[in-house]
């Protein structure tokens, strides 16, 4: 892989990845990437360790966060170049984590009603961080033999619309964008196909987000078909949005996804990061 490729959507053990932040950074360097963003779910806990590792190994690290926002399905807003000490950001993280813990309790109850013994205290190992998510329950279901893979756990029970899925988030999309900007970051709409809207409805929704200040949309993503990629890039051009992209790497928790390469053919050029950096200047004090 060329040293000028990047990955702006990755996860560590600080949320629902399998690698520590340090291991993730070293893995990215070994994969030949020039820059990565650590974008854990609703937390910046892993950033100090990742930043230290990046300075050791010589790779560019973009401090990031992936916020889950209120939605009928799954809508995520990623913040790149955030200042992790920003107080409004810290407050939003605390609110989101409280809600995550509440949702996890309900998830455990729903799984129990389906015949699966998956208590929260078994799903999240304290040494893996404090943010509990669906991937932790999926791993426990595999460990206990209820399903054969994390993918099966999601496909049958934990994905949006499945019997153990629990929605409910504390931030609106507009709040998430405002918080990211206040923390000096660029706001990116992640994996828009997971919002599960028709193309026309998705375009209208993205228009609304642009009015709120959305800066970019993922135009590169592991699960995009060629048609999706063409559509989302077309929407971005029409709406004046920048492109971002990433693999959504989770390590062993999503074993078919390679960092920087997705299912094998993902290539995100460094020029994408250059444009995003330029946009970030308008928010940085």
Indicate the topology.
Blueprint: E1 6-10, H1 21-30, E2 35-38, H2 47-57, E3 60-69, E4 75-80, H3 87-113, H4 120-123, H5 134-143, H6 150-158, H7 173-182, E5 186-189, H8 199-212, E6 216-221, H9 226-239, E7 242-246, H10 270-280
Parallel strand pairs: 1-2, 2-3, 5-6, 6-7
Antiparallel strand pairs: 3-4, 4-5
Could you tell me the radius of gyration in angstroms?
Answer: 18 Å
Placed side by side, the strands forming the largest sheet appear as 1-2-3-4-5-6-7
Report the CATH superfamily of the domain at 6-93 and 175-280: Metal-dependent hydrolases
Quote the CATH topology of the domain at 6-93 and 175-280.
Answer: TIM Barrel
Binned strand content: 5-15%
Q: H/E order of the elements?
A: EHEHEEHHHHHEHEHEH
**Main β-sheet, in a few words?**
7 strands, mixed
What spatial form do the alpha-carbon principal axes imply?
A: globular
Structural class: alpha/beta
Distance between the termini: 35 Å
| Low-confidence spans | none
Question: Share of helix among residues?
Answer: 40-55%
Supply the CATH class of the domain at 6-93 and 175-280.
Answer: Alpha Beta
Overview of this protein structure:
The protein has 285 residues and is an alpha/beta fold. The longest helix is centred in the middle third of the chain and has 27 residues, at 87-113. The protein is 42% helix and 14% strand. The chain has helices spanning 21-30, 47-57, 87-113, 120-123, 134-143, 150-158, 173-182, 199-212, 226-239, 270-280, and strands at residues 6-10, 35-38, 60-69, 75-80, 186-189, 216-221, 242-246. It has ten helices and seven strands. Strands 1-2-3-4-5-6-7 form a seven-stranded mixed beta sheet.
């Amino acid at each position: 892989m060329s040293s000028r490729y990047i990955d702006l959507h990755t996860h560590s053990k600080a949320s629902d990845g399998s690698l520590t932040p340090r291991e993730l950074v070293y893995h990215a360097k070994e994969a030949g990437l020039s820059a990565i963003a650590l974008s854990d779910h609703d937390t910046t806990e892993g950033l100090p360790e990742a930043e230290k590792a990046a300075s050791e190994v010589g790779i560019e690290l973009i401090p990031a966060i992936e916020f889950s926002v209120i939605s009928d399905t799954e809508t995520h807003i990623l913040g790149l170049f955030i200042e992790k000490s920003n107080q409004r950001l810290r407050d939003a993280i605390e609110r989101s984590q409280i809600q995550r813990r509440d949702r996890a309790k309900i998830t455990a109850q729903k799984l129990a009603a389906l015949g699966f013994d998956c208590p929260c205290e078994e799903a999240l190992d304290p040494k893996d961080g404090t943010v509990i998510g669906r991937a932790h329950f999926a791993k426990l279901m595999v460990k206990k033999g209820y399903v054969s893979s994390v993918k099966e756990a999601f496909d049958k029970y934990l994905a949006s619309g499945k019997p153990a899925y629990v929605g409910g988030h504390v931030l609106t999309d507009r709040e998430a964008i405002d918080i990211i900007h206040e923390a000096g970051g660029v706001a990116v709409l992640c994996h828009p196909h997971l919002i599960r809207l028709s193309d026309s409805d998705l375009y209208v929704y993205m228009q609304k987000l642009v009015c709120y200040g959305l800066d970019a949309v993922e135009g590169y993503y592991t699960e995009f078909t060629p048609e999706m990629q063409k559509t989302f890039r077309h929407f971005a051009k029409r709406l004046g949005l920048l492109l971002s992209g990433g693999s959504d790497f989770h390590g062993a928790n999503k074993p078919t996804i390679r960092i920087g390469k997705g299912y094998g053919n993902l290539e995100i050029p460094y020029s994408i990061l250059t444009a995003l950096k330029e946009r970030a200047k308008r928010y940085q004090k």
